[in-house]
């Protein structure tokens, strides 16, 4: 616990200083280093430094935690990160790529969205939620085996939307590659210049650097949702009369048996 309480100190302190901080003898510090798989105290410090380089936000508490300033600081930072994520999407997405993808989706026979993990799975679900309203035969999956199976049934005239915040999700890359092999068009919503972006026919670049606070949910999902909304709206604009007709039918059915308020959202 003494090591993790102040990792920066532990990396640069002498053996004697570490022993005093932990209230143990110097030989105990050496024995502890070996008990956790290190060759000695120096090796332990090297590994601590590496851990700090990779995951400082998982070792150090954010500012103001445990003080009266914590709550207002948290509120401000959460909404700031959301705004920053949406701004990153607006800046990173290119109009010509969105329009090409929307045109392809508006003409497709089938559409599938692939994504694994928390944020990408939710984004894939949102693709289905947005595009079925336009009368497009759309599905989503985050199961690696099912993704491969669905991809193998796709061909020319079909579109896959592959989603990955890092662009390194092996399962998504492999499934997208299978669909492409059989002639489907692959649209990737992912980090620019990533592996997934490199295999996509159309790459919609979205990247939001991780905020330095492990206790807050990542805001990158807002950027991906913004990209999906933009893609859905652009697709609807490719066939506006058809889109309006389907939306009107959905609204009509939703109003049945309700108070008749037509000002609410298209779905609860």
From TrEMBL:
Keywords: DNA-binding, Transcription, Transcription regulation
SUPFAM superfamilies: Homeodomain-like, SIS domain
Keyword hit for Transmembrane: no
HTH rpiR-type domain sequence ranges: 1-55
BP-aspect Gene Ontology terms: carbohydrate derivative metabolic process
Gene3D superfamilies: Glucose-6-phosphate isomerase like protein, domain 1 (3.40.50.10490), Winged helix-like DNA-binding domain superfamily/Winged helix DNA-binding domain (1.10.10.10)
Domain SIS span(s) in chain numbering: 101-243
Superkingdom: Bacteria
GO molecular function: carbohydrate derivative binding; DNA binding; DNA-binding transcription factor activity
Pfam family, one: SIS
Annotated protein name in UniProt: MurR/RpiR family transcriptional regulator
Organism whose genome encodes this protein: Bradyrhizobium zhengyangense
